[in-house]
Amino acid sequence: MIRFENVSKVYARGARPALDQVSVDVERGEFVFLVGASGSGKSTFLSLVLREQRPTRGRVYVAGRDVANLSGWRVPTLRRQLGVVFQDFRLLQNKTVHENVAFALQVIGKPRHVIRDTVPEVLEMVGLTGKGKRMPTELSGGEQQRAAIARAIVNRPQILLADEPTGNLDPTTSLGIMRLLDRINRTGTTVVMATHDDEIVNEMRRRVVELSDGVVVRDEARGGYGERESILPDVGASPVLDAPGSGTRAPVQTVRGS
Amino acid sequence: MRFQFVLGEVFSGLRRNTTMVVAVVLVTFVSLTFVGAAALLQAQIGKLKDDWYDLVEVSVFLCPEGSVSPTCATGEATEDQIDSVRQVIDTELSSQVSKVYFESKQQAFEAFSERYPDGYQGTQLTADDMQASLRLKLTDAEQFAVVSDVLSGRDGVEIVEDQRAVFEPLFRTLNVATLLAAGLAGVMLLAAVLLITTTIRLSAVSRRKETEIMRLVGASNLFIQLPFLLEGALAAVLGSLLAGGGLWLAVRFMVSDWLERSVDWVAYVSEVDVFRVAPLLVIMAVALAALSSFFTLNRYTRI
Lengths: 258, 303
What we know:
- The complex is a heterodimer of chains A (258) and B (303).
- Chain A has 258 residues and is of the alpha/beta class.
- Among the domains of chain A are: 1-81 and 201-224, P-loop containing nucleotide triphosphate hydrolases (Rossmann fold); 92-156, no CATH class.
- Helices cover 30% and strands 22% of the residues of chain A.
- Chain A has helices spanning 42-49, 75-79, 97-106, 112-125, 141-153, 171-186, 198-204, 239-242; strands at 2-9, 19-26, 31-35, 57-62, 65-66, 82-86, 159-163, 190-195, 207-212, 215-220.
- In chain A, a hairpin with a 2-residue loop joins strand 4 (57-62) and strand 5.
- Chain B is an alpha+beta fold and 303 residues long.
- Chain B folds into two domains: 2-52 and 169-300, no CATH class; 56-164, Alpha-Beta Plaits (2-Layer Sandwich), CATH 3.30.70.3040.
- Helices cover 67% and strands 8% of the residues of chain B.
- A four-stranded antiparallel β-sheet of chain B has the order 2-3-1-4.
- In chain B, helix 6 runs parallel beside helix 9.
- At the A-B interface, helix 2 and helix 3 of A face helix 7 and helix 8 of B.
- Chain B: Residues 56-160 form the FtsX extracellular domain.
- Chain B: Residues 184-302 form the ABC3 transporter permease C-terminal domain.
- Chain B: The chain crosses the membrane at residues 21-45, 176-202, 222-255, 275-297.
- Chain B: Forms a membrane-associated complex with FtsE.
- Chain B: It is found in: Cell membrane.
């Protein structure tokens, strides 16, 4: 479904490449986690799939198309087969949930009766039944992300790209979103999700592609998030952390009013 | 569906940018008024030429006594010389000249006395001071050069004069006025293009989020850009309609109602001319908007 062949992306001449000789093959209906530190190339990977960027070298195939050589006027057709979800939801604040979802169909010229039928269906699927008339600000973060997912899948894309969809959500809410993405995946939609959330990755046990400095360092079929550096490396007892306040006190200055 | 949606976007865009849209309307209004004024001035010149050139003639002045012109070496033009000139007119210039008549010294003196009954600048003149001439009416006043070429330099012809020259200063003035109006129009049109560009840009920036989503869900380029294009075009067309209306008012009240009554022997531009110019103004407005959009949109709403 998505195929990277020795893809490199260099943004500025002479700079370190954002992606370096990356080859990844995502099958139809797969669920793939894209993990790695900030700046490891996850976002570049997604923007190459979306054809927001072109690779500097190598080939990118999405749904059978050579995306790198796709002419400009064909890009919309490609994107109609892709759904995208972001960390910051990107809902239009002046439109209701229903209008936000309908917008995605309106702008690609779907007839009105299709919109009238599809939007409530999709809202039901993501668990927002009865909330179509709410404004985004009247929803919780999780609900907003559900609305954004509804917008992404309303045109029944073959591929759903998610860029840290749980990044702004608490663990319980994140879980709900993951269940939703899993359900969407089970309907046959290929899902590629860039994330930092190790708990989710470890629990879902799906394919994990780890990027580091633009290079694929791991590609496991049922992987975990991978080793994380511990927050407090073991450096022995530290008076400040172990018993705050018991060390030498700084002299206290008293300011007297004159 | 699409149409309604695009229209909705256009009107929400116009509402959001009201001040800029008003500015665009006004600038196109003023600039196209100047364009229209220039066009009407040219139309006026055309009308005057049509009218006056019918009245004027070409005068072929025949040699008087004591002329220093080399063609007058034999003194006053003789009957033979006059006849041979008429011969040439009848044969070589038959297609250019529609009418010929001879004005004798006596006839010239009568016409002169009629115009200056008290003598000219204090001198009393007699018929002998006048000059005989052949008066030619041309089928096309623009053919003067041909006529002059053929007749000048013939024996007995002192000089060939085009009476149209009398009107030259007036036409020159009107032409200068046209240039002035066109120049101002040019400056204003430039301002209009810049302003439309800025307006579209502002509109695009204020709708960044919408266009971003549109791009991501696969809306076509045209669909994304159409609302902006229409916004600019609508404002510009509104300005051009105002310009047409302004010109109509000016012609109606200043020319038809006032000038025509005070100076009634001149043919003036009329409201019909305004209706002829107005569609051109609308077309210009659309072209203007299209030009500005072309430069802006590719930069600000690219896929």
